[in-house]
Inverse folding.
């Protein structure tokens, strides 16, 4: 993997503010491959545009972000949005994440991390079910298992899978996250999984 592992991105704030919108989102710079840099920024902007109010400010939207990982050629970030209709008592939290290779621009889906046929979903489902019980989450419908493109992000030491607010749990539980240390899934990773870079010394 060589020098690609040493890549990091420069992250700066971009702001989108008007009478019904107040969103801070990341801008990626500092990459030698400007085409990849442009692709990543367009992907971020696409996620922001999806939540912008389209009802003449009948809904207000707020947003912020966190960089969860920016090392060894990998960027994993989370966009947090909160939308609330005018005169509504409660709004809705929306969480989106992007995990991308800074050298190639490849955007990772959950299934890209694991060996084909590894039954990784069964393993993750069992871990998530255990954590649902441990956290005392209140389900509004039965948890039937994750998909191959379930929402996730990466940190230095863990895979974090999450569900949208009200997808499985009550409003008061917010956006439930399930932290899965890499050591618990290392045997399931494909040979080119980005997680393996993070496990290297």
């Amino acid at each position: 993997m060589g020098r690609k592992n040493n890549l990091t991105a420069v992250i700066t704030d971009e702001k989108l503010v008007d009478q019904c919108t107040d969103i801070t989102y990341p801008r990626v710079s500092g990459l030698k491959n400007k085409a990849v840099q442009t692709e990543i920024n367009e992907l971020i902007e696409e996620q922001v545009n999806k939540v912008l109010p389209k009802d003449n400010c009948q809904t207000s939207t707020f947003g912020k972000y966190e960089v969860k990982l920016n090392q060894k050629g990998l960027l994993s970030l989370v966009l947090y949005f909160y939308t609330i209709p005018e005169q509504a008592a409660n709004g809705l939290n929306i969480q989106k994440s992007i995990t991308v290779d800074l050298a190639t621009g490849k955007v990772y889906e959950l299934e890209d991390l694991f060996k084909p046929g590894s039954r990784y979903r069964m393993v993750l489902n069992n871990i998530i079910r255990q954590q649902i019980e441990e956290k005392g989450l209140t389900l509004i419908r039965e948890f039937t298992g994750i998909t191959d493109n379930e929402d996730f992000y990466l940190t230095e030491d863990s895979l974090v899978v999450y569900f949208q607010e009200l997808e499985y749990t009550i409003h008061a539980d917010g956006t439930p996250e399930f932290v899965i240390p890499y050591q618990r899934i290392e045997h399931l990773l494909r040979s080119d999984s980005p997680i393996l870079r993070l496990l290297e010394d």
